[in-house]
Every structure is written in C-alpha cells, then in structure tokens.
C-alpha cells in the first residue's frame, strides 16, 4: 500500500514540477518570493543540464509556455505550432537514433534512411542558412563576428534542446536498449531537432515550400531570444548612471514602489544578469515595465531603467496614472499663497 501512495505522490510532484518549470523567470519572480524563485531557477538549470530526465513534459503546457516575448497580435501564440510531417516514415526517421538499429542490421544497405543522421545533416544546413538570414536582416549594422556570436545563441546544442523540449521531442526519440538515459543529453535532442527541420523541407510538395515553412516556424520560435539579444546589444550604449533616479522621478513616489528583480542569467561570467523592473502603485499592481542585461547586477539594473525610460508610451501611461492620483502639478512660476496673501484670499472668499 505504501508503494502505491509513494508512487502516486511522486507522479503528482513530477507533473506539478514540470508545469512550474515551464514558466518564465519573470512570471516566477512575480508570483513567488525571492528564495522560492531562486529555488525554481536552480531546478530549471538542473533540467537544462539533463539532471532531471524523469520529468514529464505536459503537452498542454507546450502551447501555454510563456517567456517575456509579447505576441504582436492577439491570435499569435508562442511557441508556434510545430509544422506536421505528413509522411509517417519520414517522421519516424527524424526521431530514430542510430543506436536503435541493432547488430548486423546497422551495416546493411539502406540503413542510412532509417535513422536521422542524414536528415540532421540536411536540417543543420537549412538551420544555419535561415538563422543567418534572420539575424542579417534584423541587425543591419552589426559586423559578421557579432552575427556569428548571436547565431550561436540560437543554434548551439543547448538552445536547440530547449526548443525541442517545448514540443516533447526528447520523449519521442527511439534509441537502443540501455541508451534511453541519453535522451536527456542536449546534443542528442538538438540533433533530433535539426533532423525534424530536414524532414519539414523534404515532406513539402516542393523544396521551396518546405524551406519557407521551416523559415516561418523558426522565425516565430526564435523571436523571444532575438528580442533578448537586442536588449543585450544595447549594452554597447554607455550606462546612464542616473537612470534609476530618473525612472524614480517618472514613476516613483511616496505612494509607489519600483522594484528591480534578478530574473535570469547565472551571474558574472556565467551569462551575466537579467534584471526586470516592476511597479506597484498609481493603480498598478506588480506591473512589469521592462528588463535589462549587464555583466554586473548594478549595471543590469541601470540598463533595465534605461530601457523603461526609452519606452515613451509606457512612461506616458505611468505619468497619466500618477497625475490622476496626485492631481495636476503647479504651473511654473506659480506658488501657493502664504502669510498676508492667505488672509486676503480667505477674506475675498467670504465676500
């Protein structure tokens, strides 16, 4: 009886934890206290390193997974829908690791069309081309060295494995007995992701249609990371040491609190710091204003404040809300009546 209870409790824990780990750092920081959010971020890091291979990936969460990416239209969702593979043999090949083919069969003619290595080769080529073109057109003033570094943030094994897990690809890989534990390794999951891209291209009626389908899907999928890169590259602009004070003058006050929260990055030379800004007051409750990246926490806070101040529409919205509560500010040159003037104002009001 105890075995059943423990097993059931563990299943419940696994599903709850898998759901929790799908939420963005901003969402976690907003809903949890600092220690709780740091604990969940540590678990997310363990999952990304493949240390929690037993965690399920609820399919319902894949469609609801959120990041700091804000869709441009109400109908747009992230992650975007996975392009289907119509050919069942091609789809099976995209998820078949070479270890699945046992013994002498591994050297038989035609085996190269059973596992995904050829599809991976093709998919990697299209992935490099599509991601290069996306960055080339999005950042017209960046040199090739910067673009290469940014492309690595999209197409290296770790980010590709993260993208693949959004679609539960890691749990669909077919491997030989005793090899299942390697499903959690980022390289194997990333290879499967590249193979799926190759299958998308081959499955379409024409190569051009397949490439276009892959391009549209990857463009939408990469958008949150590209937005993060745009924010990171703003660090080329000198830090405004007065940004936090300026933002406090715009949005702060006795009735409002501006809070800076560390919401991403492992710190220092392990990915720097992502800091998000939240506002409580003037009718707003834990309103997310923006974020910034820096190699130190203090720089990240200043960058975050700079990015908020650069959003003119947001600052206008906050100023209007603040004005509704505090009332109009005195016009320049005017001053409140004092002393004798007060008495004269009182007397005149009685007449």
Task: Describe the protein's architecture and organization.
Its EC number is 3.1.26.3. GO terms for molecular function: ribonuclease III activity; RNA binding. InterPro entries: dsRBD_dom (IPR014720), RNase_III (IPR011907), RNase_III_dom (IPR000999), RNase_III_sf (IPR036389). It catalyses: Endonucleolytic cleavage to 5'-phosphomonoester. The protein is mostly helical and 351 residues long. It folds into 3 domains: 1-56, no CATH class; 62-102 and 110-232, Ribonuclease iii, N-terminal Endonuclease Domain, Chain A; 243-326, Double Stranded RNA Binding Domain (2-Layer Sandwich). Helix content is 55%, strand content 8%. The protein contains 14 helices and 3 strands. The protein has a 3-stranded antiparallel beta sheet. A hairpin with a 2-residue loop joins β2 and β3 (284-294). The termini are far apart. The model is unreliable at 57-75 (pLDDT under 50).
